[in-house]
């Protein structure tokens, strides 16, 4: 049986009349005229939208002379096209240097599926700078909290 929007209110109105959902208002079968409850206000984030403007931050990241891990991280964010939250847990076993591919395991992806990311030669060069570090590519330079 096909239930169309025309028949849905007639079908569900008796059930909604008894308020099985407590203090919920309305019967949920008719469209609301207000915005959905809990809808977040749009937030705007900084972004480079001019193609010619990308050079300055890339040069600044490549010219950074501070901590070696930070410098490599800045380059990897740019050249491996990863978010900082994806970069920090990156491990050496995920990276196949021969085929220039990073294989992200399913437990660390939003959709719980394995994900393969091609790596640019600049990203591989940045990885060479931090190769001696342990399991994690960008291991913390700070001592662990106890």
UniProtKB/TrEMBL annotation:
Phosphoprotein is among the record's keywords: no
Top-rank taxon, per record: Bacteria
Sequence segments annotated as region (Disordered): 18-40, 126-146
Coiled coil: none
SUPFAM superfamilies for the chain: DNA breaking-rejoining enzymes
Keywords: DNA integration, DNA recombination
Single Gene Ontology BP annotation: DNA integration
Alphabetized GO MF terms: DNA binding
InterPro entries: DNA_brk_join_enz, Integrase-like_cat_sf, Phage_Integrase
Protein family: Belongs to the 'phage' integrase family.
Protein name (Swiss-Prot/TrEMBL): Tyr recombinase domain-containing protein
Organism: Ancylobacter dichloromethanicus
């Amino acid at each position: 049986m096909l239930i169309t929007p025309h028949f849905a209110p007639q079908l569900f109105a008796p059930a909604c009349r008894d308020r099985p959902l407590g203090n919920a208002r309305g019967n949920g079968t008719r469209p609301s005229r207000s915005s959905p409850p809990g809808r977040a206000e749009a937030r705007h984030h900084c972004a480079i939208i001019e193609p010619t403007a990308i050079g300055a931050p890339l040069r600044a990241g490549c010219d950074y002379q501070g901590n070696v891990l930070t410098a490599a991280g800045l380059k990897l964010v740019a050249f491996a096209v990863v978010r900082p939250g994806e970069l920090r847990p990156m491990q050496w076993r995920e990276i196949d240097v021969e085929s220039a591919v990073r294989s992200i395991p399913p437990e660390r992806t939003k959709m719980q599926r394995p994900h393969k990311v091609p790596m640019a030669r600049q990203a591989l060069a940045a990885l060479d700078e931090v190769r001696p570090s342990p399991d994690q590519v960008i291991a913390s330079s700070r001592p662990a909290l106890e």
